[in-house]
Amino acid sequence: MISDIGLLAAIRSRMQWLQTRQGVLAENVANADTPGYRARDLAAFEVPRRNAVPTPAQIVPTRTDPAHLVSAGDDPRWRHEKVATFEVRPTGNSVVLEEEMMKVTQTQVDYQLATSLYSRSIGLLKTALGRRA
Fold first, then answer.
1. Has residue 105 been placed in a domain?
2. How confident is the model at residue 9 (pLDDT cuts 50, 70, 90)?
3. How many CB atoms lie within 10 A of CB 25?
4. CB 103 within 8 A of CB 23
5. Domain for residue 81, yes or no?
6. Which of 12, 72, 96, 118 has the fewest Cβ atoms nearer than 10 Å?
7. pTM score, two decimals?
8. Distance (Å, whole) CA 71 – CA 83
């Protein structure tokens, strides 16, 4: 069954998460002028685990020689710091439309990517099975 393929299940889960996030962001934009409304967002997406395969974050390269290249995680110039905004209007509303629209756009791009990956994966499976699409 196609649902048993881990990659496709992960892509499908990601697409569902992106759909839900788009709804939450739409609520934020719709309530941009509602007094006391607090902007919301979903927790970061995590791939559902079926097997105990280590994720890239769990695999850490070891620098055994000073001549080896420094990984991006070791170099302070490449550290990503997430800056939380605390902008609140006098009415108590914390929705920043510019930030919300950036999130909406990124979510849309991510959804298009996931859809493309899913479609291409299905196409590859059909080709492998000898059923041209």
1. yes
2. confident
3. 25
4. no
5. no
6. 72
7. 0.67
8. 23
